Amino acid sequence: MGWYVRSLGARKVMEFVVLVVFVIFFLGPLLNLLLLAVSGKWQYPAALPQSWSLEWWQFVLTQDDVLESISLSFLIAAVVTICSIIVCIPAAYAFARIAFPFSRWFLFSFLLTHAFPKMGLYVSIAVLFYKFGLMNTFVGIVLIHMVNTLMYMTWIPSSAFRSVHRAQEESARDAGAGPLRVFWKITLPMAFPGIMVASIFTFLASLDEAQGTLLVSIPDFKTMPIIMYSIIADYPSTTGAVFSVILTLPTIILLLAARRFVSADVLAGGFQVK
Amino acid sequence: MTEPQLSIRQLSKRFKTGDGVSDITLDVQPGEMVTLLGPSGCGKTTVLRSIGGFLEPDSGDILIRGQSVLKLPPEKRPTAMVFQSYNLWPHMTVYDNLAFGLHIRKHKKAHIQRAVTDALELVQLAPAARKYPSELSGGQQQRVALARALLLEPDVLLLDEPFSALDAKLRMEMREELRDIQMRTGMTMVFVTHDQEEALSISDRIVVMHAGQIEQLSTPQDIYDRPSSLFVASFIGRINLLPAVSDGTRIRLQSLELEPQPGQALLPGACTIAVRPEDVYLTDEQHSLAGTIRQVMVLGHYAEVSVVCDEQIIKMFVPREQAVHLLNGQAIRIGLRKFTAFPEQTAGITVSHTAASQAAATV
């Protein structure tokens, strides 16, 4: 063993140690969460739960409002994604292709909603919502979610459209395709990975949104994160763990399904203000 | 004379930056390969893109087989274009790339299949039909792009520096292949390049462009032998540009008195003599220039010799066997077989004397 470590050299050993620390740092909390979700009794300082149990799973999944909240959250996320696509894809195309004054500043301004303290922004939006009667409505929730997703949905597809070279569109025009057909057959399919990634982010962000929803949805609309807040406050920590796993699941499934499209390149491209 | 396949009349297009072209008039006959040649920014691509419909000219007209196409969008024009790069659509297979235009024209499926297969065979890429563009090399991609343009059966095929992204050897092969395809199909082609060697080798006629205007329009042979301006002389092939003085009937180049070439009239004053390295020869005659050899470079079957005559460097080509006897520092005498003389300021030419002598130093 000793000779093996020596043959590797100090550098390799250090790299290995750093890697292990990183893995523990990133995956440790997740592992802890999983263990907690299936434990019956787990008291400090035991390394593993003293007893295993799925009783809190049963509890969470038999709560009516929990199941309702899951379907409501998915419905909202789907509607938010579709609305964002309808609103943002044309905008993204315009930012990518049409040179208009201050376009860069407009694009940059989408970052502002992420720069302010969220609560302050939501409170001022809530004041507007009261005036228009949007409080405690489905439309109100969708709108407040879209405030958050505008940036992803414009920036990432815009960079995707920009990466479609003009000559590629022009050669399609040359081959006899009108402008609309060029968009459907050439530009859109080539920008599809970027749009896909942005849509997934939008969907996940909407599933996870709690602050704004809490403010505008009370009392009738209870989404998953809202229910989770009250359950964490009222029940043992195991319930929270179970719920977290349920919330994480769609994220993982979606990311796995779309891993073909999700690459660091697409993301990095989206966050370059050109 | 038959009706020209493509006719450009007084075409002008100016961009905000000041670049562009003015007053371009050009007729291209059916089955002809015409090359627009010039340095970058001379407007050659502007002309090509105007023909293809990707630019709207400020004034002038473009006719294809007698019909004005100025009002037509690119998809309605009987032209097809091969771009410098980013030609193919990466989300489609080679087959689908080629079939795209035919589908739009609502051809029968069997017909499309046959046409695509034929086109791929023409560019020797039949096995690549099911591949995606990213699986092909640069040269193969450019051949597919060529096949796609040919399939559209355009009245005029436009090529925008199609081979400039390829390496030198491949570029030569593609040139030959393109010329071959042109001979076989009899297609009218307009080719844009900044590579004078490429232009000389494939064209029926060359249009030399400079600063948005046509400098000379002629056959490759004629442009090489009888450049109409100092710019053309220095841009095409290799050439020595030497300062000289004319008294109206004779030209004085250093110690040498020269008769102007037949058909050339010169005003008295300073002038520039353009002479190709292959038109400079070693001689024993008294009526010649004395100089010393500065450098001998063997370039395959011939050698390039730099001779210093009265502080001017003159380059000459000599056969390899003869070059063996030449040594650095050796005193020799050289004569000029033929040359062209240009007055110092030819109208419309912006090549200044210093630029010309720099060009001479770099040839």
TrEMBL record, chain A:
Coiled coil feature spans: none
Domain of life: Bacteria
Compartment annotation: Cell inner membrane; Cell membrane
Keywords: Cell inner membrane, Cell membrane, Membrane, Transmembrane, Transmembrane helix, Transport
Main location per the UniProt record: membrane
InterPro entries: MetI-like, MetI-like_sf
Membrane topology field: Multi-pass membrane protein
Domain ABC transmembrane type-1 stretches: 70-258
Stretches that traverse the bilayer: 16-38, 70-93, 105-132, 138-161, 182-206, 226-257
Family per similarity comment: Belongs to the binding-protein-dependent transport system permease family.
Protein name (record): Spermidine/putrescine transport system permease protein
Source organism: Paenibacillus hunanensis
Automatic annotation (TrEMBL), chain B:
Keyword ATP-binding: yes
Origin: domain of life: Bacteria
Protein's UniProt keywords contain Transport: yes
UniProt GO MF annotations: ATP binding
Family annotation (InterPro entries): AAA+_ATPase (IPR003593), ABC_SmlMolc_Importer (IPR050093), ABC_transporter-like_ATP-bd (IPR003439), ABC_transporter-like_CS (IPR017871), Mo/tungstate-bd_C_term_dom (IPR008995), NA-bd_OB-fold (IPR012340), P-loop_NTPase (IPR027417), Transp-assoc_OB_typ2 (IPR013611)
Occurrences of domain ABC transporter (ranges): 6-236
Keywords in alphabetical order: ATP-binding, Nucleotide-binding, Transport
PROSITE patterns reported in the protein's UniProt record: ABC_TRANSPORTER_1 (PS00211), ABC_TRANSPORTER_2 (PS50893)
Any coiled-coil regions, as ranges: none
PANTHER family attached to this UniProt entry: SPERMIDINE/PUTRESCINE IMPORT ATP-BINDING PROTEIN POTA, SPERMIDINE_PUTRESCINE IMPORT ATP-BINDING PROTEIN POTA
Protein name listed in UniProt: Spermidine/putrescine transport system ATP-binding protein
